[in-house]
Amino acid sequence: MEKYKILKKYFGYDTFRSGQEELIDRILAGQDVLGIMPTGAGKSICYQVPALLMPGITIVISPLISLMKDQVRALNEAGIHAAYINSSLTESQIEKAMYLATQGRYKIIYVAPERLLSGLFMEFLNHVSISMVTVDEAHCISQWGQDFRPSYLNIVHMIAGMKIRPVVSAFTATATEEVKNDIQCVLGLQNPHVLVTGFDRENLYFEVRQGRQKDSELVRYVKEHKKESGIIYCATRKNVEEVHKLLVQEGIEATRYHAGLSGNERKQNQDQFIFDEKPVMVATNAFGMGIDKSNVRYVIHYNMPQSMENYYQEAGRAGRDGERSECILLYAPQDVRINQFLLEEKEFREELSREEMQAVMERDALRLKLMTFYGTTRDCLRGYILNYFGEKTKRRCENCSNCLNEYLEEDVTKICKDILQCIWEARREYGAGTIASTLHGSKSEKIRGYGLDKLSTYGCCENVTEFRLKEIIGELIARGVLRSTDDKYATLSLTTDAEAILKDKVKVVMKFSKPAEKKVTAQKKAKQTSQNLDSKGWRIFEKLRELRLQIAKEEKVPPYIVFTDKTLVDMCVKKPSDKKEMLNVSGVGDAKYEKYGERFLACLLENT
User: Fold this and answer.
1) Buried b or exposed e, range 303-333, using 16+ CB within 10 angstroms
2) pLDDT confidence of residue 351
3) What is the pTM of this model?
4) What's the CA gap between 243 and 235, in Å, rounded?
5) d(CA 407, CA 427)
6) 85 CB contacts (<8 Å, ≥6 apart)?
7) Confidence category of residue 518, pLDDT binned at 50, 70, 90
8) Distance CA 329, CA 325 (A)
9) Do 93 and 230 share a domain, yes or no?
10) How far apart are CA 468 and CA 448, in angstroms?
11) Residue 58: closest CA among 77, 84, 39
12) pLDDT score at 525
């Protein structure tokens, strides 16, 4: 069948991944589709394959210039003529791209949403045959999404202004049920085929590290993974500058990215990361949405993000090639206050009414609270993420820190009663830190000034550390026994569930980390053995990586555009010796073989 020929010839794959063929068939049948598929699941294949089989041009709306450039570069490397239209081009360059498109030069054109309603572009649309409009990162069209972009509403007006309505396809990796419904409604999808393949990324390992030694933890981790590419996300520009300076002082090849840098410096730093010149990127969340770099082996969040949507999207930039990668959150309570401040300073669009602004603020506060629970839960981290997006999961994934760590269960009913009694006695609302200090028996001026040293519960938990008391308070909030306000002061109050504990009707058991005994080494071992390479195989892999880097410099393209790590690993496993065998390697298509195949065959022959 033609779709399989296209898949093999241009992309080098023999079979489709889960959900891809189903969406492709629906598109080719003329039906609108909405595909919600995790990062790395191959969403682009779902619209690129039918684009090559349909008679006209496919317009792909994409949110970032860097994302378009990356996609177009990859398509051209695969032997597919594609172009992009955005603000990085001059008007004459845009006119030339449109002229070549009318002459049948391009099958796929990526366009920035800001360009859709320009007179020049609308005129172009009416002079060519448009088979499909594809909306990438479709959650950007929903005001309930974590990354709403008003310019995405131009898509609706563009489609309405076309003489013949094309097939409309939309794709995203992160969408709650509410956002999924909003995408269909706002885009005006007609009888769409909606496919949710699941949000799970089985190749990703999730871990939360709590404590105050973030810097030493970070430096130790990056040095242990010095040959690997990674992204470190920070909440503020100041954090980015401090973390970048720390890593450079430790002799680590790192670069940085945030909105405070000039456009030229951001581009230069981004290129150094993409081309593996500096394997570590320290950035705010302004970085990454448009990066298709497939060999990012770890993503570390130095600060906790504002929502699970943000976290999963950013963490999902690890392991896009399907190889095992790590996503680590360095959690500290201070991160909650930083995010509360950032949300309070958030700017709203002028067209929002007071009621809409209030609704958005309440939604943001709830998202932050649920993100905070992720940082403190002792349950399966993967399960927590998937449940958030409405996906039922098994109890343990055995590939996150909570499943692999040893925990001790402890009866904390007495401590919980003391906490609840203290909050009730205080008669006014205080934060977790103040309550913990009171129970521990702090002699600070603040505690005496509030008169909290006069409470019957003052000092009743002097043998329990304040850190442990705050841990327990956090778990009581997560269980709904305590209510925490959403402002930056986050004061506590009792819920109706507190009564059962105060009256000894229930026992409270919580899990706490077993000191210095972790089973995470099992995950490391799995990471090494999953790729079926022995020590000799890894030596060959390194030789192939060196060749790939050399070719990338010659061609002035990112190394992963030449071949992904996953393709190189498959070469090491299959050890092809001729063209036919090389074309059986996953990710090697006709165009890639003609460009690079002989050199990689020679390298394999020399080293096996």
Assistant:
1) bbbbbbbbbbbbbbbbbbbbbbbbbbbbbbb
2) 61
3) 0.76
4) 11
5) 35
6) 94, 97, 98, 109, 110, 111, 112, 115, 121
7) very low
8) 14
9) no
10) 22
11) 84
12) 41
Q: Measured between alpha carbons, how far is 572 from 537 in angstroms, rounded to an integer?
A: 6
Q: Is 461 exposed, middle or buried (CB count within 10 Å of its CB: 0-12, 13-18, 19+)?
A: buried
525 occurs within a structural domain: no
Q: Is residue 526 part of a domain?
A: no
Say if strands 193-196 and 33-36 run parallel, antiparallel, or are unpaired.
parallel
Does 499 share its domain with 466? yes
pLDDT of 19 higher than 80: yes
Residue 146's identity, in one-letter code, is Q
Query: Does residue 422 share a domain with residue 400?
Result: no
Give me the CATH number covering residue 118.
3.40.50.300
Cα angle 240-245-248, degrees, rounded to a multiple of 5: 125
Sequential DSSP letters for 391-440? ----S--SSBHHHHEEEEEEE-HHHHHHHHHHHHHH-S--BHHHHHHHHH
pLDDT of 357 strictly over 70: yes
Q: Which domain holds residue 255?
A: 204-405
Write the CATH number for 559.
Answer: 1.10.150.80
Q: Average pLDDT, stretch 199-207?
A: 91
Q: Lowest mean pLDDT: which of 11-15, 144-148, 317-321?
A: 144-148
Percent of the chain with pLDDT over 90: 53
